[in-house]
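assembly run, all chains below
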Amino acid sequence: MSSLSERPAGAVVGRSLRHESAALHVTGRARFTDDLAPRTKDVLHAWPVQAPHAHALLSRLDTSAARDVPGVVHVLTGEDVPGVGDSGDSDDEPLFPTEVCFHGQAVCWVLADSLEAARRGAAAVRVDYEPLPAILTLPEAIAAGSFQGAQPTLRRGDVEAGLARSAHVLDGELEMAGQEHFYLETHAALATVEDDGTVLVQSSTQHPSETQAVVARVLGRPRHEVTVQCLRMGGGFGGKEMQPHGYAAVAALGAILTGRPVRVRLTRSQDLTMTGKRHGFHARWRVGLDDEGRLQALEATLTSDGGWSLDLSQPVLTRALCHVDNAYWIPDVRVTGRIARTHKTSQTAFRGFGGPQGMLVVEDILGRCAPLLGLEPHELRRRNFYQDGQTTPYGQEITQAGRLHRAWDQVTRTAGLDRRRAEIAQFNATHEHRQRAVAITPVKFGISFNLTAFNQAGALVHVYADGSVLVNHGGTEMGQGLHTKMLQVAATALGVAPDTVRIAPTRTDKVPNTSATAASSGSDLNGAAVKDACEQIRDRLAQVAAQRLGVPAADVRFRDGVVSGLGTGTTVPWAEVVAAAYVARTHLSAAGFYRTEGLHWSSTVMQGSPFKYFAHGVAATEVEVDGFTGAYRTRRVDIVHDVGDSLSPLVDLGQIEGAFAQGAGWLTLEDLRWDTGDGEHRGRLATASASTYKLPSIAELPPVVHVALLEHAHEEGAVYGSKAVGEPPLMLAISVREALRQACAAFGPEGTVVELPSPATPEAVFWALQAARAGHGGGIEGGDGPPPPEADPEAPERRPQTETLLHQLGEG
Ligand code: MTE
Ligand code: MOS
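ok done. output:
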């Protein structure tokens, strides 16, 4: 066992503690960035002037009338920028644009004593536009050749030869929609000028160091004059990895210019219309399979909809390409990626970071091919699983294939899939207008940032003379439970009770040059850094304790707040050892650092071993589809997920359930619509509020949810044997989509191929099952008017009763 992964006796990691802020969350006392505004004196409120065109030149900007509005203090424009007026990292995101590139883009910001005055001021700003033609959809962008950024190709072997030797060659297309993050807390920043003239920005950001870098660049100041703090976020989901920077910069700029604190907080519809979302993708593919259904070759072109600027589109595309294989061995591969430039919000990171889009391609292929090959989809999938020793198309060796097989078998067994498939066949045979199906799908998700340099983290740990411990680390808390895990790591490394430790808000002046809390690697990276810092202090304390206990320092043990010597009956309380160490002039503070070893990646040839390990999971989902309306219900889901040796089982359980629900939302419910017509609102986001953008709620969750953590899953390469959990379970929701496909097929004759749009909304499902009834896949076919549906006495209650196997998680 490696020293990084080894757990001491009595470890606090592995216990099912509740989220460290749970009580604050549910009582409304948890403080978020914008809660600071009412506690700050003389705050100015910022309101954007949003362009009513998807693409236009700004011919005139006249702010004089706004400045006459009572309460308005200043209108921020490009002239106010002392440094570089760009909020991105590719020099393509002007803060104050002269060319509008999407409907709703902010062209200037009004600062006023009240939000209402700022809003009225913004309405008084006079802007003249010269509208230009706008590209909105992926097909339009592809036809026009509108692309941005690099166009990487991931290749192995000889795709033409692979296709030539294949018994079956099939081709197809898939277009999948994006997704709105809909974090509960919209983007927010509050900037103040400190007593020494430096700037403090409170920001709801997943990437405080980059927010700091962008603010410093906009202000034309060195980074040591800008501090960014993130208290916590009310959700980020990737949407706050890159996009908070511009809002933080507006607040900072306003604060410098006026000398007053400036608050930016987007309303929900501003957030929806101004900030980036998950990338929609288009995929065109050709696949070859042998007579037994074994994948031989895959050729594909993936085009993502990047929106108006690059933002994180390139790394998102890289991850998509690195996940088209999902869990399957494909000998010959050639996959090319492109990023379309469209006149929409700049699409960005979203849980999975391109991985879900890449995986959906191969899962869609297998779901479509199974009936053509005369195979059950689960049989086709299982047959193609990786074996150890094989490599991914980018050259990383597979070493844990057994885990996927184990998880698959466990779900098959515990969910009773064989029995239920027979029951479902029975049900379907006796219900003409309702059909059920159960689908099982795997997830294999690479953990680490593709870009090797990002895989580093720092921590700063102080032990005070009374024994209490303060931990700063580079990660941010967005609800995912990172702080809870870091608290457990620190308590384990120091051998103290969890309530001895406090986790401080994330600040760039405590831990510098941090990576985004992203790629699910927050606990791997920061956990190892926290552990390093704690162990430095613990080793110094061991010297002090050794003298008192009369044993060598190597024989001193720290556990549950008690320090003991091996083989002696004597113990000393932790606080006493700390107090003695202080008197003996021991350094009780330490900076920890970690970098992930063994990673390499070349983005030019798209080869390497970019991931420390893979996280695995398997889900089986049963659905029932109504033949009259296409409405469907998810009846049950069974999940086995690989989190290594869990750092915090309750937190991991929440992450798995939440990610599954969010993934199901993306694939079945959430339907972003832009006005793609030629009218005056072309390019406007039509789904710009909760009334038109449908989110999954507790009511959409299946009434039966079984989640189990894969056992015997120790991970050698990560802190205390754990694995990352934040993103991978989102892709378990592909099982919902595949179940819907199979249920639609059940309306048709044996062997029906179903092409399902994404999202598979009830409307889309209705047309898919109509096509199946007509005896062919895809296409649109009219139907007869529906007779009223019958009542279903066996239908499960709509009340969700999440049955999680807590007893499997140790403490429940
Ligand atoms: N869980 C909650 N509750 N809220 C969030 O915003 N973001 C997800 C995931 N889980 C998110 C979440 C995303 S996109 C990532 S990358 C990880 O958490 C980041 O945190 P971690 O690295 O600590 O897992
Ligand atoms: Mo997550 S999409 O990596 O912030």
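The two ends are 27 Å apart (CA to CA).

Residues 522-549 form the longest helix (28 residues).

not gonna interpret more than that til we talk
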